[in-house]
Amino acid sequence: MMAFSRFAGRFPRSISTAALLLCLVVPPSPGISETDEEYSSALLWIASMESTTVIWLVYVSIFITIVWTKIARGTTASTPTTKRSLPPPPMAAGAPLLGILPALVMKGPLQAIHDAYKTMGSVFTVRLLHLQVTFLVGPEVSSHFYHGLDSEMSQDEVSKFTIPTFGPGVAFDVDLATRREQIRFFGDAMKPAKLRTYAPLMAHEVEEYFTKWGQSGTVDLKHELEHLVTLVASRCLFGDEVRGKMFGEVATHLRELNDGMRLVTILFPHLPTPAHRRRDRARARLGEIFSGIVRSREAARRGGRSSYDDILQSLIDSRYKDGRATTETEVVGMLVSALFAGQHTSSSTATWTGARLLSPDNAAHLLAAVEEQERIMGRHGPDPGHMGYEALQEMDALHRCMKETLRLHPPALTLLRLARRGFVVRSKEGEEYEVPAGRTVASPLVIHNRLPGLYRDPDRFDPGRFGGPDKGASLAYTAFGGGRHACVGEAFAYMQIKAIWSHLLRNFEMEMVSPFPETDWNVVMPGPKGKVMVSYKRRRMAAAA
Ligand code: HEM
């Protein structure tokens, strides 16, 4: 997933860094007292720094502000979209200078954006430091966001900061046409025929992983599933041959890549912070490891020994429309992107699914999911090797639990675009506004999927709501995005999480012994906060006839 949502990092720390840098560039406006709390603490912090550091920070901040402004000016159309002049979207109240920042820090993003939505309606603008962001909430106002042309609603400007993470030659380091072709390569590697070949790999990886659990015990489910998801994804990406020996190192570097994508990264992707330095070292090492693998595949092919059927081979064999083969740098970048896109999103979804199913309030949903496993075992046999593609596709009850989990806990907080051309939007309340060219536009998934007009009793976990006509249609359900840039890994993610939970439900009785996890809003890509402790006991499930 290549979105704002992918940033994993400590929110307050990153925010305050960004706020401090802003304080260095923007003096307090006349209306703002110098005793303003955030501003004075910034000044105190600055005062405690070496003068060379201060000068350096001022220099970097000015430079980046100029570049940012130039990019926005250079890439946006200034022609108005309408002959009538329409007002811009109304501005939500915010603190002087800091805008919505204090509310974000104090209430958390869900509450802060929800409060603004309650007061302002479906279309409104907030100020976050020097940035104005227009929020579009709900399917009625989101069509242009999701379906607009890339030349008009662009990901580029708001996503360039991902380049140090994904590396050269892929994603936002290449032009749109190349990027679209690369996404097609991913799409090809995720087609049902390919997914069918990954299903047994997933089942075996999961089976093998849980052999290390004893007859009974207590574990941190979040920690366990983070590991397992990386193992499953690695096996599908690289097959068996390398997954085992490089797993430990790759997992560490992936964590460092995640940790190196913080809020401050959006504005200052190359700021030499410790986290960015670790990210750069991790990316370089991953590049070496993956290049080695790609080269050994090429050598095997030359020696006529190539018979691989994994995602890596699919990416190596991919061809651009002009017949050009993918380069080693591109394949490596796509491998890193695939691992990055799927890792945190899937592991946090796997953990939330468990927390929801094991919550005492949801005993009936757990029972339905367990009974479904008994029935499916009855049809396909108890051997884990039989839990293949067809069996996973039949797990409707589990599928609905995951879908409902994602509705309530989307790993992507909000998606972002830059409006290169101004556009008109009619709010749900019937007002027309012109969103100006150059404006950052946001679709906040975190409240989009909880709108009472779309979902009855929206905060309740109710997988049954997806039993009828699929609400995934027409932008009502956006956990995987939608329109032009809908997630290409959705089916893969469902399959791997179902493979994990199907095994757990069949083989263990489980109880959550820690409270239902809170959401960690302190990271930009929200996930379950703290440990999710679960006690388990092995069981032998009888197949239902
Ligand atoms: C539960 C797991 C996942 C969730 C919730 C998720 C969510 C998303 C979302 C919301 C977007 C839209 C981004 C935007 O519009 O700006 C997206 C795009 C994307 N995702 Fe995922 N994702 C998941 C797993 C994966 C996996 C496993 C892969 C690949 C292995 C993947 C690959 C991608 C790619 C390549 C795109 C970009 C599509 C485009 O720009 O056309 N995702 N994802």
From TrEMBL:
Catalytic activity field:
a 14alpha-methyl steroid + 3 reduced [NADPH--hemoprotein reductase] + 3 O2 = a Delta(14) steroid + formate + 3 oxidized [NADPH--hemoprotein reductase] + 4 H2O + 4 H(+)
**Gene3D superfamilies, alphabetically?**
Cytochrome P450
Give the record's membrane topology. Single-pass membrane protein
Residues holding heme: C487
Q: What is its main location?
A: membrane
Give the residues annotated as coiled coil.
none
The answer to whether the entry has keyword Nucleotidyltransferase is no
Concerning Pfam families, the annotation shows: p450
- Signal peptide coordinates: 1-31
> Can the keyword Signal be found in this entry's annotation?
yes
One of its GO biological process terms is:
methylation
Q: Which UniProt keywords apply?
A: Heme, Iron, Lipid biosynthesis, Lipid metabolism, Membrane, Metal-binding, Methyltransferase, Monooxygenase, Oxidoreductase, Signal, Steroid biosynthesis, Steroid metabolism, Sterol biosynthesis, Sterol metabolism, Transferase
**What EC class is this?**
oxidoreductase
> Which cofactors does this gene product need?
heme
- Provide the Gene Ontology terms for cellular component: membrane
GO-annotated molecular function: heme binding; iron ion binding; methyltransferase activity; oxidoreductase activity; sterol 14-demethylase activity
Protein localization: Membrane
Enzyme Commission designation: 1.14.14.154
Q: In which pathway does it act?
A: Steroid biosynthesis; zymosterol biosynthesis; zymosterol from lanosterol: step 1/6
As for family, the record states: Belongs to the cytochrome P450 family.
Q: What does this protein do?
A: Catalyzes the 14-alpha demethylation of obtusifoliol to 4 alpha-methyl-5 alpha-ergosta-8,14,24(28)-trien-3 beta-ol.
Which named protein is this? Answer: Obtusifoliol 14-alpha demethylase
> What is the species listed in this Swiss-Prot or TrEMBL entry?
Brachypodium distachyon (Purple false brome)
* Organism classification: Eukaryota, Viridiplantae, Streptophyta, Embryophyta, Tracheophyta
